[in-house]
Amino acid sequence: MSLAGSQQKVFLRLLTTLRPHWRRDRDFPSRVQALFAANRSFGSRDRKLYRELIYTTLRFLPWIEPLLDSDPARATQVAAWLAADLPATRAFRAAHCGDWPPCPTTVAAKAAHLGATIDSLLPAWLPRHCPAATNPANLNALHTRASLWLRLQTPDAARVLAEFTPLGWATRRSEILLEALEVLAEADVTKTAAWRDGLVEIQDLGSQLVLGAAGIAPGGRWLDACAGAGGKTLQLATLLGATGHVDAHDIRPSALRELEIRAVRAKLTNITVLRARATASYDGVLLDAPCTGSGTWRRSPHLKWTTSAADVAKAVELQTAVLAEFSPRVRTGGRLIYATCSLSRMENDDVIAAFLAAHPDFAADGPARTILPATHNTDGFFVAALRRK
What we know:
The protein is α/β, with parallel strands linked by helices. The protein is built from 18 helices and 12 strands. It folds into 3 domains: about 120 residues, no CATH class; about 55 residues, Sun protein, domain 3 (Alpha-Beta Plaits); about 180 residues, Rossmann fold (3-Layer(aba) Sandwich). α5 crosses α6.
């Protein structure tokens, strides 16, 4: 059997193992990782190939899944054709669909070639929650791989580029946030000295814009109430500078341990991890609220198929609760920044409208903003800044 034939066999076997879980397991990436770890024969290039094929299958699941039963060879061709053109996928694509026309950039053109329908690619509930997600630009963005964005933690970008350029990694600076750097190559940044020395952090541009466009002034004491592993915590600490301080809280001890590691690597000493609930008053509270994550479908396409309208409603209940819990921590005149990585207006504008109606001591501090994937080639985010009167 040829190498391409053997790889097809492995790919279809992996899909058979994963298929019972991809519409119900929200931790699907961990399942994929465990499956790869169990296959000791997989090398780095094998894992890159099969990961891209699996995630392409999830992005275009309604187009590929029916073929797994009726025509597995055709399913392989479609997945290979739709997959990104990467060093790890190039030979596989050439072997299985090399005589096909080049894969077009738009979802509409892809659908036309395959005789598929576009509407099936998004859950039925999403257009009601975010009509803009269905416009061609955002639809195209949601069905491409997410870009690799870094946040520079040094004013001397030349130090970073001096390492990246000899590796053949092309980069570009964001036009709207100069500390954001896009890596235009398949790159493992965590193997670089720039990452080890804390000169860069991996953080999507959309995530960076949540605080980068919020006008955070240096100084003051802030609470990051749902800090997670700390991407925005580190950014907030950098914006506040040496005269400012961030208290970081999260209900997940493992996330806080990761935050501490990242803070040390970034050489930031103005962060305190809280193991108990915050009781102080703060100049600002960042509430990066738990959400359904529909803004992250580019990098987590399984969430399209594991998230329902009922899940959105549950998320709204949780978001309302955490706002009620942490808003009292904002001092008079202080700011509350509410953010999600959801595209649903129910988790975003509607939550904020309900909060303001129930809390007349708060007012909007400028217009809320939805960051759509196509606007700046990012994940999707929502951010609203409020001020306590």
